[in-house]
# Entry
Amino acid sequence: MVAICIANNKGGVGKTTTAVNLAAGLARLHQRVLLVDVDGQANATYALTGRVHPVPSLYDVLVGSRKIDTVIWQTNEENVWLVPGDGRLQNADVELAAKAGREWRLARALHGLDYDYIIIDTPPSLGVLTQNALAASHKVLVPISLTEFSLIGIDKLDATIEELREQLDLEDLEIAGVIATFFEDTTTARDTWDILEKKFEGQLLETRIPKNLDLEKAHREHESVLSFAPNSTSGVAYLQLAREVKRLVPARARPYNRRNSNA
Ligand SMILES: Nc1ncnc2c1ncn2[C@@H]1O[C@H](COP(=O)(O)OP(=O)(O)OP(=O)(O)O)[C@@H](O)[C@H]1O
Ligand SMILES: [Mg+2]
# Structure
């Protein structure tokens, strides 16, 4: 069992698309995957089930006292299960602010679950929800879109991860990789790729996710692009990404356990 958080404080860079399709790709490589939607927009929930802001959801686990196994659903993808999010999560930052151990609530809730991979989708902010997601993860995968201005603000994520490592005693929380999304054959995309290669030397994943409309269409059909259009450029790329991630971050044969998870 290994937990991977998909994070970038910047909006619209392909976090949810990557979470959903990486989960589906790993499932095709015979892995059992739990996708956790830690975002009040609940886009991952919609993308794999068609449900809009279902209740109960992860909110009732993080803010209430519901057990997580009562909100684990099957999805339209074989071997992918989902803990849904809903709009109430948008208030969770405020509601959790006064609670002790507030950054550890997700890690505690996941304790003892037995999947090969837990993939956590996060909101485009660095509030308590994203902190919960990072604290619950062994590794972080950062999607960066190869469009103009996409690099502005990336240092903030670096700094937050660094801060959390210190605050929460998470020396082992690592960026597993940076994944380039919205790749297209333009000067801007190629220039941004060159900058990323230098900035994230050794961390930039080989797989690039192309800009491709089938991703959006697959969301609307509530399935992964691997089901909707397996031979599309993005379908091929996300399966390749799953292979790369499986190689870089192999699953461990033991149930979920994160240090300090009893905090
Ligand atoms: N590689 C791609 N090519 C074309 N469209 C894409 C690609 N990746 C994502 N999209 C589309 O771009 C939009 C934003 O993607 P997505 O929702 O995955 O980003 P996000 O980082 O999760 O956004 P947010 O920060 O709001 O959570 C969606 O409509 C999605 O379908
Ligand atoms: Mg999203």
